[in-house]
Amino acid sequence: MDKSPIVIGSDHAAYNLKEKIRMYLLENGYEVEDAGAKNENSVDYPDYGIKVASLVSAGKFNRGILLCGTGIGMSMVANRFSNVRAALCNDLFSAIMSRRHNNSNVLVMGGRVIGDVLAIEILKAWLETSFEAGRHQLRIDKFNSIGKVV
Ligand code: RB5
Description:
Blueprint: E1 6-10, H1 15-27, E2 32-34, H2 45-57, E3 63-68, H3 72-78, E4 86-88, H4 92-100, E5 106-110, H5 116-128, H6 135-144
Helix pairs in contact: 1-5, 2-3, 4-5
The chain binds D-ribose.
């Protein structure tokens, strides 16, 4: 299993979930880079999405985790970066399939949508599931090749 360092970020809405996930990762032997937020004071999710996605995009980290209230804003931000395949997974099946078929490298969850226990289960599944490559890599190559459409 890939035990390379993971970069994590959230806004205020998912700060508490970020702390739970950070602790889970540390307790399970992962090095974690915390891009913030540092507390529950209101912030703008793009600031943290950009930090995490740019580090993954540049290859400084293989994987990232982004959390906001719904996960929607963070997904929108992260998927603007090349080499980032951010997957909004508020359920287990999506997390598993996002690894098997989409080779997701940023896991996004909504702290106001799911509870902490489910979030940790989703995280575990995401960390443990491998990409199946083959035809799925060809499909990723197809959308990678389009670049910016407009
Ligand atoms: C913050 O209120 C909320 O808009 C944010 O956490 C997120 O859900 C955005 O998509």
